[in-house]
Amino acid sequence: MSEMSVEVDSSGAIARLNEFMQNFMQVNTVLEEDINDGIMLMVDTAVALCPVGETGKLQHSIHYEGSFPDYSIVVDAQNEYGQYYGYYVEWGTSRQGAQPFLWPAINAVLPKLVYRIRRHVKDFILGR
Known about the structure:
This protein is mostly helical and 128 residues long. The protein is built from 4 helices and 2 strands, in the order ααββαα. It has a two-stranded antiparallel sheet. The longest helix is centred in the first third of the chain and has 39 residues, at 11-49. It is rod-shaped.
């Protein structure tokens, strides 16, 4: 029997894979920036929508913690009894009506953020 061999030149595929990975890392950086910007805009919008009492304590307590991809938007103002009261302002109580500020901020910013992310992912997939 005669010997049979097949040579495969994978250099082109490896080069394309390397290019894809470089582009993927670039789009990942862009998405990280989009999400950072979106979180900051949510916080800024919540601060703008937050009802301001005598001290402005609740408004000044709105911030975010964490880093990409794990963020938390935190509202940590406490009253004189050590109770966090942002929840009661947002959702209301039996004695006081709701004055939402956090969810309206999220709902206002989220569609814009999703649009930006979709656009950047689409551009990546289409090679733009």
